[in-house]
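note to self — DONT lose this again. spent like an hour looking for the file last time. sequence + predicted structure for the chain T wanted, 130 res
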Amino acid sequence: MACHKEIWQNIGEGFVQEYYCRFDNTNRMELGNLYSPEACLTWEGSPYQGREAIANKLASLPFKTIKHIITEQDFQPTIDGCILIMVFGQLKVDDDPPMAFHQVFMLKGQNCEWACTNDVFRLGIHNIPV
């Protein structure tokens, strides 16, 4: 029996695949096209608002190469017709060892397409005093 997925799961999976493919393989300024004009990003606790500010932040990250490896991704429809996405995985930048990361996206249908309205990113680094 084939596994049936809800439409919001398919949309979420497609977004995640496109986002990390663009992030890893293209000029990161192009990621701005996946965000709504008024989107919000919180990157390691620092807020950015608007497509241009988000694209500039992502393009200015200080590494030459990056590869994301997705461990798990979860999707939920919201009561107002959006899609909530949570991604957990590892990323490898330049010659550094792999690091865990968590990222949450909110997608909203706008002008007959889906756009990211909210994005929260954190590395899975623990600074626990000994």
